[in-house]
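Q: Got a minute? One more chain.
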Amino acid sequence: MIDRSPITPETLAQLGVAKVAYVKPMRSDEITRMFPQAPALPPGLDLFALVSADGMPIMVTDRREDAVANAWQNELETVSLH
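A: Always. Here it is, folded:
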């Protein structure tokens, strides 16, 4: 018999933790709100966050290419979020 129970968002996120990362364009104001542990940033900067499948920040940069390169170096498949 096949189990057809729904997968929770938490379980789904854990499936891709070691394989998938998201490149998300963000403003510095959003970085500060979403990741309070991040160092203080000047307001209004356009940045890119590389975030693991479970939502943990990996890195923040001002160039999308740098976020993708970091994912590639860590053998992560990147997906863009808009």
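A: The helical segments are 9-15, 28-34, 64-73.
Q: Perfect, thanks.
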